[in-house]
């Protein structure tokens, strides 16, 4: 990580205020999963077109997420069964700033991601959902979800280090996540420390973007990836994971 932080010092800095101009709460996501040894090549390309988010001298930030689901994993099964309108419910904490949000992410039938979030004043995730959080989730989810929201519980902790890049010209954000760590209940945490997970967030979906074409030169290709679903499939023994089996085998090889 020290070497990565040194390379990041070569980038122009983007401020949090300037990043607010490209919030992209409604967006298209393109993901990439690759071995972190390729990061130096990727950074060399990014340096010409992207600035990196800097807050109080830091350019790499720790994120912690707590995902919620029912006991029969309703949201997980939506994804596994390839539902075209599916949801994830989570708390996300920005460790360095102390801010915490309750979030609902929807992937709609046009493959567009819509993220809604509620700032929590106390900065902490809830073991049991408050009435405000329940009402917020019900308003975000376009299903007959009263029973579902009443049943969801904490299911998986996910943490990682994130670097955020911004391209103001193309109105794009690129995040690169490292040190992805899963922890379920009282089990030992499992870290995929050789992986890099990149996500391009943009207003328009195009596989011909300059970044995607560049990554192809490094043999890095678009790939589906859900932190929650992959993490649950890796840590929960009694769950159907046929759709993610090849993905997990690939991740184990890379890691």
Gross morphology: globular
Instruction: Profile the largest sheet.
Output: 8 strands, antiparallel, barrel
Strand content: 35-45%
**Rounded radius of gyration (Å):** 18 Å
Helix content: 25-40%
Distance between the termini: 16 Å
The ordered H/E elements are: HEHEHEEHEEEHHEEEHHH
Number of strands: 10
How would you describe this structure in keywords?
8-stranded antiparallel beta barrel; globular; 255 residues; alpha+beta; 28% helix
Please render the helix and strand layout as text.
Blueprint: H1 2-8, E1 13-14, H2 16-19, E2 26-35, H3 39-49, E3 51-53, E4 61-69, H4 74-80, E5 86-94, E6 99-107, E7 113-120, H5 131-140, H6 146-151, E8 153-167, E9 172-183, E10 190-202, H7 210-217, H8 227-235, H9 245-254
Parallel strand pairs: 1-3
Antiparallel strand pairs: 2-7, 2-10, 3-8, 4-5, 4-8, 5-6, 6-7, 8-9, 9-10
């Amino acid at each position: 990580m020290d070497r990565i932080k040194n390379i990041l010092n070569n980038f122009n800095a983007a401020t949090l205020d300037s990043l607010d101009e490209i919030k992209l709460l409604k967006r298209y996501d393109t993901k990439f999963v690759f071995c972190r040894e390729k990061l130096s090549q990727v950074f060399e390309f990014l340096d010409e077109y992207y600035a990196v988010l800097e807050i109080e001298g830091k350019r790499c930030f720790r994120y912690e997420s707590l995902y919620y689901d029912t006991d029969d994993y309703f949201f997980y099964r939506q994804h596994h069964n390839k539902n075209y309108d599916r949801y994830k419910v989570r708390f996300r904490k920005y460790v360095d700033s102390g801010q915490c949000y309750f979030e609902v992410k929807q992937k709609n039938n046009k493959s567009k991601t819509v993220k809604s979030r509620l700032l929590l004043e106390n900065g902490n995730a809830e073991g049991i959902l408050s009435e405000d959080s329940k009402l917020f989730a019900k308003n975000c989810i376009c299903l007959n979800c009263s029973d579902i929201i009443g049943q969801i519980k904490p299911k998986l902790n996910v943490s990682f280090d994130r670097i955020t890049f911004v391209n103001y010209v193309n109105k794009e954000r690129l995040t690169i996540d490292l040190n992805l760590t899963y922890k379920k209940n009282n089990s030992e945490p499992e870290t995929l420390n050789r992986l890099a997970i990149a996500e391009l967030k943009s207003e328009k979906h195009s596989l011909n973007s300059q970044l995607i074409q560049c990554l192809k030169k490094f043999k890095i290709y678009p790939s589906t990836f859900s932190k929650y679903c992959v993490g649950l499939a890796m840590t929960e023994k009694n769950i159907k994971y046929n759709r993610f089996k090849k993905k997990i085998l690939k991740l184990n090889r890379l890691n």
